[in-house]
Amino acid sequence: MSKQMTIAIAGLGSRGRDTYAKAATIYPDKMKIVAIADIDPEKVKLTAREYDIPESRCYTSAEDMLKEDKLADAMIIATQDRQHEERLSLVAGKTNFTGS
Fold first, then answer.
1. What pLDDT does 80 receive?
2. 3-class DSSP state for residue 89?
3. Dist. CA 71–CA 91, nearest whole Å
4. CA–CA separation, 50 vs 42, rounded Å?
5. H or E segment to which residue 44 belongs
6. pLDDT value at 82 more than 70
């Protein structure tokens, strides 16, 4: 059995929450969401409850989440496309990168 991968997600819209996060429910033995960020605090609260993410790992901006030391094995950046390059520069050296 392979190790469960921990995931942080920046952006909880149609890609982040509705597509990538759902993989954690389909493959719970393979991945666990451990940190989330979105500018909409209601999306953060809803997603935190759904995936049992502690408040200390919930952020209202990707930038605040990316200031933390390594939070997860990999990060999914599912914010608006025009923001990916900027966020990638913040992620560099911290974790594996997946952009959508």
1. 61
2. helix
3. 11
4. 12
5. helix 41-51
6. no
